[in-house]
Amino acid sequence: MARLLVHWLLSALALLAVAHLVPGFHVRGLVPALVASLVIGFLNATLGLFLKIVTFPLTILTLGLFLLVINGIMILLASSLVRGFHVNGMVPAFWGAVVLALLGILIRAATKKE
Predict the structure, then answer these.
(1) Alpha-carbon span 3 to 21, nearest angstrom
(2) Nearest-CA neighbor of 26 among 106, 64, 71, 82?
(3) Count of H helices and E strands in the chain?
């Protein structure tokens, strides 16, 4: 349970870092980042999973890069649902997805069970 909470907090901090690195990606503070990370996770586990299954052939053709587009769409959808979290369009959402994927690798490495 503690690892899950640490992962959630690190994901929210990653969103805050993306807001500083990607123009057009705005997070107003830690609380909106925490809520946004929960919403993004929920959307990726439900709608994102469905989209990844449906677009599997396209994902294969693009060597997995289309997954970043799907993650960008989930980020855009989350920005329309969470107050204090706003993304100005698909281009910042895509680059935010790229940076979040890279930070996610670091988070998983930091929180992995030995």
Answers:
(1) 26
(2) 82
(3) 6, 2
Residue 25, C-beta contacts closer than 8 angstroms, at least 6 positions apart: 18, 19, 87, 88, 92, 93, 95, 96
Question: What are the 10-residue block averages of pLDDT along the chain, 114 residues in total?
Answer: 84 94 94 95 93 94 94 95 95 96 88 71
Cα–Cα distance list, 92 to 1, 4, 5, 27, 72 (Å): 33, 28, 27, 13, 8
Containing 83, the helix (H) or strand (E) segment is none
85 forms beta bridges with 27
